[in-house]
Amino acid sequence: MGGRIDAYLDIASLYSYFTIEELLKNKDRLAAHGVQVDLHPVLLGAINVGSGNKPPWTLPAKATYGNFDSHRSAVRVGLNNISPPEDLMADSMTVVPLRALYVIKSTYGEAAFLATFRYLFEAFWTAPNKKVAKEAVLAEVLADVPGPRGGKLFSADDVERIISGAKTQEAKNTLKAQTQKAIDQGAFGAPWFWVTNPQGKEEPFFGSDRFHFIYKFLGLPFQDISLLPPGEKAAKL
């Protein structure tokens, strides 16, 4: 079938965490359908500024509702240990770890990039909520990323190289360019998707609960939500 999903995510976005879980769970199946998936770290704060949007918790009613919605969404993707940082606003300046991810992607390859991206989400959104925006803490977290066959993914020298690389102009430019690209596409938050179907048509999607729309746009076979008659057993997600 083919097609492409470009997903723009920030570590400081809880719904981006739900998105990476969903995408990694279905990564091989999407590949079997010929769909290419590319994840792009972006700075959500810059997207909010560029689009004129505001964090949802700044509106009390949204903040209250968000406690219910985030829990439901987390459970759906198998994340039962979510614990938001005490000071999300202060911890959400994730510029350095986002740059570091681009260094990892270009230096160590896609598998290392995906494993590290997911691990940074876990470190940020589960207790004790590592403050990965701080260079020293980021170095500790990178040193703990599990390897594919046991052990650690990065050596001490690797971590030093990644941290140094995150300070280069190239890393700065890459993060800035990808964030601006999302803004130019119309992004007003994260997760943001730019999807290309097999016919070459492109459309934007927003939110971690839009995969049924994405799959339909790509022409993929999927099971939509449907209400069952009384007595019929529900299928497990």
TrEMBL record:
Any single GO molecular-function term of the entry would be: glutathione transferase activity
Its BP terms in the Gene Ontology are: glutathione metabolic process
Family designation: Belongs to the GST superfamily. Kappa family.
**Catalytic activity as recorded in UniProt:** RX + glutathione = an S-substituted glutathione + a halide anion + H(+)
Q: Which domain of life is it from?
A: Eukaryota
This protein's species is: Verticillium longisporum
Signal sequence bounds: none
Record's protein name: Glutathione S-transferase kappa
User: The DSBA-like thioredoxin domain covers which part of the protein?
Assistant: 5-217
Q: What is one cellular component GO term in this UniProt entry?
A: peroxisome
UniProt cross-references to InterPro entries, sorted A to Z: DSBA-like_thioredoxin_dom (IPR001853), GST_Kappa/NadH (IPR051924), HCCAis_GSTk (IPR014440), Thioredoxin-like_sf (IPR036249)
Q: Where is the active site?
A: 13 (nucleophile)
**Keyword terms of this UniProt record:** Transferase
Hydrolase in keyword set = no
Q: What is its EC number?
A: 2.5.1.18
Enzyme class (EC, first level): transferase
